[in-house]
């Protein structure tokens, strides 16, 4: 179990599979500085484990109704989302996330390896979601690239994405990566053939993982300091109130 869900909800920023490529001269000349900067912006994507299950649940429950519909292909209730999160298999599959400075999970992806099906053991299914306030930053595209890299290193040769046909953002990411998209009424299926793993792909995944872990630990340290400062402020205010009441 622990299927990534039939569909995904992402922002509309496009993607290319693997590491984003540099713009050529003609593109750079016609591209605003802000867009050029966006292409090279690094996003710390951390691998999630069993201990992050509550954060995954909080993230998915925070999705607005329409986003839940796009992510799961139906109007998922809190109970159905809870069941999905309970069935996540962090040992078989891979779950990735992007955290903000407050350690809130603002974007996540589920890469489900189809090892239980002999004919599809070299395939993996991708599902992704991004909360509303974090849209337009390319997190969906970056998570897709990250999943492609990890899938290659796990000997996967085909990435599968199921999406509602109205989910143009997800389908755009798949098409830009070179996937073949087949539409059947309200549903679409994208299949992307992946290149084989290389020494470079393994080194890239290792470096990205270590950098993301360092970023997470730094954010965690800042978060703990902010929490302590808030506690001290509350204690100070409490002491001040006691002194004032005593004087009065």
UniProtKB/TrEMBL annotation:
Pfam families membership: Acetyltransf_1
Keywords on record: Acyltransferase, Transferase
CDD domains xref list: NAT_SF
Region Disordered, residue ranges: 1-32
InterPro entries cross-referenced by the UniProt entry: Acyl_CoA_acyltransferase, GNAT_dom
N-acetyltransferase domain location: 43-195
Biological classification of the source: Bacteria, Pseudomonadati, Pseudomonadota, Betaproteobacteria, Burkholderiales
Protein name per the record: GNAT family N-acetyltransferase
Broadest EC class assigned to this enzyme: transferase
MF terms in GO: acyltransferase activity
């Amino acid at each position: 179990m622990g299927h990534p869900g039939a569909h995904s909800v992402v922002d509309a920023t496009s993607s290319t599979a693997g590491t984003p490529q540099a713009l050529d001269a003609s593109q750079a000349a016609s591209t605003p500085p802000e867009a050029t900067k966006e292409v090279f912006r690094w996003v710390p994507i951390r691998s999630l484990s069993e201990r992050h299950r509550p954060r995954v649940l909080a993230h998915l429950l925070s999705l607005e109704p329409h986003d839940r519909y796009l992510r799961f292909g139906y109007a998922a209730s809190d109970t159905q989302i809870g069941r999905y999160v309970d069935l996540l298999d962090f040992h078989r599959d891979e779950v990735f996330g992007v955290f903000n400075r407050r350690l809130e999970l603002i974007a996540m992806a589920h890469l489900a390896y189809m090892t239980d099906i002999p004919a599809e053991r070299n395939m993996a299914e991708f599902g992704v979601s991004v909360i509303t306030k974090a849209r337009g930053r390319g997190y969906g595209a970056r998570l897709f690239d990250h999943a492609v890299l990890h899938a290659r290193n796990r000997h996967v040769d085909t990435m599968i994405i199921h999406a509602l046909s109205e989910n143009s953002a997800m389908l755009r990411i798949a098409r830009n990566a070179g996937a073949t998209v087949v539409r059947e009424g309200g549903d679409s299926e994208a299949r992307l053939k992946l290149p084989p793993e290389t020494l470079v792909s393994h080194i890239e995944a290792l470096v990205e993982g270590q950098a993301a872990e360092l970023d997470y630990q730094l954010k965690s340290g800042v978060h703990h300091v902010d929490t302590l400062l808030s506690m001290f402020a509350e204690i100070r205010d409490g002491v001040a109130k006691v002194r004032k009441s005593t004087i009065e």
